[in-house]
Amino acid sequence: MMIKINPRFRFFTLDTGRLPQETYDVMDAVRKRYGINLEVMFPDTDEVEEMVRKKGLNLFYESVENRRLCCGIRKVHPINRMLGTLDGWITGLRQDQTETRRDAKIFEVDTQHSNILKINPLVDWTWDRLWGYIRANDVPYNKLLDAGYPSIGCAPCTRAVEAGQDARSGRWWWEHDTHKECGLHMDYKK
Ligand code: SF4
After folding, report:
1. For atom 4 of ligand 1, which residue has the closest CA?
2. Model confidence over 5-19: pLDDT tens digits?
3. Pick the CATH number of 2-188 from 3.20.20.80, 3.40.50.2300, 3.40.50.620, 3.40.190.10
4. Does residue 56 register a pLDDT over 90?
5. Which residue ranges does the record assign to the Phosphoadenosine phosphosulphate reductase domain (predicted)?
6. In this predicted model, what pLDDT tens digit does every residue of 59-76 receive, in sequence order?
7. Residue ranges per domain, the chain?
8. Mutate-to-test residue for ligand 1 from 71, 171, 174, highest number of ligand atoms within 8 A of CB
């Protein structure tokens, strides 16, 4: 959609260093298909090394505090670095992804990021409408979606869900908080 509107848009994503291979595959498929220069933001090496030295590689399973630390270093700090250079950003966030996103709107002031503009053009799209668009336009998608992963994050923190289960229940499944967010869109978490 964005390529059709303006091919000069910039496209960015995050590589936490712990993503599944299928996510790298779809990143490359999108680059090739649309001929875009995908800007991939990585975590700060010193921050990751210090965290792993002190807490180990699988720290996130040990406590919510450790999980938030890891998400902070691998996701939140890199995106903050990018958003700190921008006046606004456009996301694929949708209200029906999770309870915490029910109040998301198309146009928002991103209070989490220096009040820049945040635009969520798909905010009221349902799962079915999304898949209708993907199929009609042959959009590359993450193959884990075919394997029962409706919400995909880092490999060690994501698992498949049963049909009918909440889409986000496969994320950080060992935690009991039903309002789970990694910190990228914390403005909706009450
Ligand atoms: S999802 Fe898991 S591995 Fe990825 S940044 Fe968060 S805690 Fe770390």
Report:
1. 154
2. 998 899 999 999 999
3. 3.40.50.620
4. yes
5. 1-160
6. 999 999 999 999 999 999
7. 2-188
8. 71
99-102 long-range Cβ contacts below 8 angstroms, 24+ apart: 99/178, 99/179, 100/179, 100/180, 100/181, 100/185, 100/188, 100/189, 100/190, 101/185, 101/188, 102/188
Per-residue pLDDT of 80-127, as tens digits, reads 999 999 999 999 999 988 778 889 999 999 999 999 999 999 999 999
Task: State how far the Cα of 32 lies from the Cα of 84, in Å rounded to an integer.
Answer: 28
Burial 61-73 (b: 16+ CB within 10 A, else e): eeeeebbebbbbb
- Ligand 1: distance of its center to the CA of 9 in Å? 28
CA of 155 from ligand 1 middle (Å) equals 8
